[in-house]
Amino acid sequence: MRLEYIHGKLTYIIDTLHCIDNKYKGSCYCLHKLAYELANLGNIVYIFSEPIYQHSNIRVIPCYSENFFNDNFIKSYRWDQFEFDIFKTVSVYTQITWGNPFGTHFNTRWLLHDCEDEKFNSFGENDLVCNFGNFKTPKEINQQKLTIFDYQLDNFYDKKLETRKGFGHILHKKTPDWANSFLQKFESVEIPHHNGLNNIDYLNDEFNKYEYILTFDDKTYYTSIANLCGAKSIILNEDQNLSPTEYRLQNPTNMFGVSYGLNDIEWSRKTLHLVRDHLSELKKIDYKTVVNFNNYWYDKLSKT
How far is the C-alpha of 68 from the C-alpha of 88, rounded, in Å? Predict the structure, then answer.
């Protein structure tokens, strides 16, 4: 496939390859939201899966995935050839991508999770490293803040139901072996969150049923969704070396409405009403990180 380059704009290639088979992962929402915001700033953005957020400046490159099985499961991708101005194009990869498969001169590594040593060593020495939050790298390096997310503030709300009671829980990442027996003490009911990935009404209904939502995942937006629906969130299995205040400073999305451990419940009770306004402010701050990111590459590439 031959695509015409539009002069006078930057071009971004955003690695959405792993979104082909599961576009509802949190990282995919981040990548697609970044694609939309960069496109909305007037850039041309190439992606490899159907956009979650439509924009006329977003171009989808036809791509195909293949599964291989030897000692390990391996997924490989092939995509149609496309043309771009090598002096005006920036690739954006996450921490899970090996090397530089698109062969661009200018690259960004966007950390949406802690970065493994082997993947880190495949980065180029001149790559710009951006961090969504406070994710770890094998060694200290200069990083730029880049945070963009769809907070879905218009989609989730408290229905003010008098029937709200008890505990519900999300079994997502970081769930320990002893989780089920522990949750039974609270008579907690599991919320099959995957049912709500493409069904907002389902999640709205579920989170409006319970007084508290329990999770073992300390970096999930489900805690904030629960807050928007009027439930108080509790993160279990917390790091004993990290105080609730330290946790909140490192995870500003969970600043209000979220208890870091069972001994922190009073905080979620007294701050739940602050969540919506707080997330609205974070949305504005996040957008500034995208503008700063775009300005960085515009300034750099204008000198080439």
Answer: 35
